[in-house]
């Protein structure tokens, strides 16, 4: 296991004047939710997520060496879908400030960051997770040129570590189908500092799992996730919630091995509703679900009860619904979505996704 100090480089053995990289990084959907954090993006409880395949951010990074006299601050241009995006810049500036100690070359270069998503920004799909993971991969690609002796394991773990400093859940978007983040006694190698590929047996039932994302509300959330996390500090139910996350993650270890879909559904839906219960019972309190979110949940419960098809839902910190189901029932579930759920989606929009493998160099 790596410590934070392990990610501070001593010296670089190579140099490079300019160049560019391009990476795609996927979003992810947490099954056990992380909600609440300590300083430096350390999670208050562990989480585990499916890495997605189609919902991703594609980021190009071009870099050019600056004159030494210019190196008093960071220098970067930010483009979103090819056009300057000034309102994203403060978030990138803050990210660079957080990671500079781990990437001491950052002020030596001017960067052009050109990023695009395959899904609507601020749609309640975790664009900050995929965006920060893609950016971290690009920065690590530059560091690997400066330090060619870097191991593959170090490269990916440090990328996850850096991504976390931009957006907590971004550390789960680097590697693997199933990713755990946060210290969990029963998960070997787990860490608060970065995500790790789930190290134990996973039943065939969970291979190629499907996630159809119903876009209930594509607008900006009225309360950001950052604010929501902060409201856990004095939350009356916080400590019990954190303990529950550990318990649910322990249960999932067994469920992933056995393939028990009924038990999987109980944990995943309970986690989703608990996340929103925390929002509704914080002070100030707030609700991110919309009426159509509840319509969809009730329709899924009715359909599952009548057909015994193992389809379930989860939610992120927003109104959209992730419909999760094994690959072998895809046709029936998509027909159900078409027949009964599309009517509750904004402009009838939904995204078909499935488990993916993490970041890809382009």
From TrEMBL:
Keyword check for Signal: no
Residue span(s) of domain Diphosphomevalonate decarboxylase-like N-terminal: 25-186
Keyword Lipid biosynthesis: yes
Annotated organism of origin: Flavobacterium sp. CFS9
Family annotation (InterPro entries): GHMP_kinase_C_sf, Mev_decarb, MVD-like_N, Mvd1_C, Ribosomal_Su5_D2-typ_SF, Ribsml_uS5_D2-typ_fold_subgr
Single GO term (MF): ATP binding
SUPFAM superfamilies per UniProt: GHMP Kinase, C-terminal domain, Ribosomal protein S5 domain 2-like
Record-given protein name: Diphosphomevalonate decarboxylase
Superkingdom per UniProt: Bacteria
Gene that this sequence comes from: mvaD
Keywords: ATP-binding, Lipid biosynthesis, Lipid metabolism, Lyase, Nucleotide-binding
Biological-process GO terms, alphabetical: isoprenoid biosynthetic process
Cross-referenced Pfam families: MDD_C, MVD-like_N
Mvd1 C-terminal domain boundaries: 213-341
Endpoints of the signal sequence: none
């Amino acid at each position: 296991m790596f410590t934070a100090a392990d990610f501070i480089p001593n010296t670089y053995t190579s140099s490079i004047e300019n160049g560019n990289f391009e990476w795609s990084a996927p979003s992810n959907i947490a099954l056990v939710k992380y909600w609440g954090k300590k300083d430096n993006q350390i999670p208050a409880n562990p989480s585990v997520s499916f890495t997605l395949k189609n919902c991703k951010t594609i980021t190009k990074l071009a870099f050019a060496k600056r004159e030494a006299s210019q190196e008093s601050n960071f220098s970067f241009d930010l483009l979103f879908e090819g056009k300057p995006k000034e309102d994203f810049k403060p978030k990138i500036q803050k990210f660079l400030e957080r990671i500079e100690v781990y990437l001491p070359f950052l002020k030596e270069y001017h960067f052009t960051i050109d990023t695009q998503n395959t899904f609507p920004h601020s749609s309640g799909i975790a664009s900050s997770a995929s965006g920060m993971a893609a950016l971290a991969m690009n920065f690590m690609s530059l560091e690997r040129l400066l330090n060619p002796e870097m191991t593959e394991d170090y490269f990916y773990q440090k990328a996850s570590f850096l991504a976390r400093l931009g957006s907590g859940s971004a550390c789960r978007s680097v590697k693997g189908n199933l990713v755990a983040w946060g210290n969990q006694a029963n998960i070997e190698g787990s860490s608060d500092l970065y995500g790790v590929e789930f190290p134990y047996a996973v039943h065939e039932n969970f291979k190629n799992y499907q996630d159809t994302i119903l876009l209930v509300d594509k607008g900006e959330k009225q309360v950001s996730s950052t604010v929501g996390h902060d409201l856990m500090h004095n939350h009356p139910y916080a400590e019990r919630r954190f303990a529950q996350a550990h318990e649910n993650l322990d249960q999932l270890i067994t469920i992933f091995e056995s393939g028990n879909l009924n038990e999987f559904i109980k944990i995943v839906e309970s986690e989703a509703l608990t996340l929103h219960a925390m929002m509704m019972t914080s002070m100030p309190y707030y609700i991110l679900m919309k009426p159509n979110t509840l319509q969809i949940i009730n329709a899924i419960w009715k359909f599952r009860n009548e057909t015994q098809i193992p389809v379930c839902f989860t939610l992120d910190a927003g109104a959209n619904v992730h419909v999760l189901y094994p690959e072998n029932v895809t046709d029936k579930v998509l027909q159900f979505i078409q027949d009964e759920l599309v009517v509750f989606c904004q402009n009838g929009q939904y995204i078909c996704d499935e488990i993916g493998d993490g970041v890809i160099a382009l």
